[in-house]
Amino acid sequence: MSSPHSDHSNTAYPPPLQSAEHAAVNERRQQHNIDPNAPLVGVALSGGGIRSATFCLGLFQALAKQKLVRRIDFLSTVSGGGYFGSFLGAAFSREGGSVESIERELADNHSWSVEWLRDNGRFLSPNGEPGIACAV
Predict the structure, then answer these.
(1) What's the DSSP call for residue 70?
(2) pTM over 0.90
(3) SS3 for 118?
(4) C-alpha to C-alpha distance for 61 and 55, rounded to whole angstroms
(5) How many of the other CB atoms lie within 10 Å of CB of 84?
(6) Strand runs (DSSP E) across 5-59, as ranges?
(7) Among 61, 102, 103, 123, which is most exposed with the fewest C-beta within 10 angstroms?
């Protein structure tokens, strides 16, 4: 007799989806010379509005400077974390959007994307008062 957990696991995460995700992770890892047997890495970006998005930007800037964005296999977002997660997904979707270019952009405090996020993430001064900006 099978346990209820194993039946639920196959329903919630069906084997064909598991296989497809495993193949995608292995393909990405191969492209970036990452050990296919390394542990899976997932990042969850929590909510909290624009403050959370600002924190996520700073976190990913630090990861990018260490060239660790390429090591992330799964990303989960909610609420404010979704602001940054959406930006990141869109960056990968742009023409020429590679992990190398994204890590370069995020690591540069004055790249167009970081400047844009800062200019449009002013929760203390949404009208852009001179001299006040998001500090990341």
Answers:
(1) G
(2) no
(3) helix
(4) 10
(5) 24
(6) 42-45
(7) 123
Q: How far apart are CA 56 and CA 11, in angstroms?
A: 32
Per-residue model confidence as pLDDT tens for the chain (136 residues) = 444 455 555 788 899 999 999 999 999 999 989 999 999 999 999 988 888 888 999 999 999 999 999 999 999 999 989 999 999 999 999 888 899 999 999 999 999 888 888 777 765 555 655 554 545 4
Contact between 70 and 103 (Cβ < 8 Å):
yes
For the record, the structure tokens of 58 come out as 């700073």
Residue 11 backbone dihedrals phi, psi, to 5 degrees: -80, -45
Residue position matching structure tokens 């959007």: 97
- The Cα 113–Cα 84 span in angstroms is 11
Distances 117 to 26, 30, 56 between C-alpha atoms, Å? 31, 31, 11
Tokens of 130: 């001179």
Question: Residue 40: what are its φ and ψ, rounded to 5°?
Answer: -65, 140
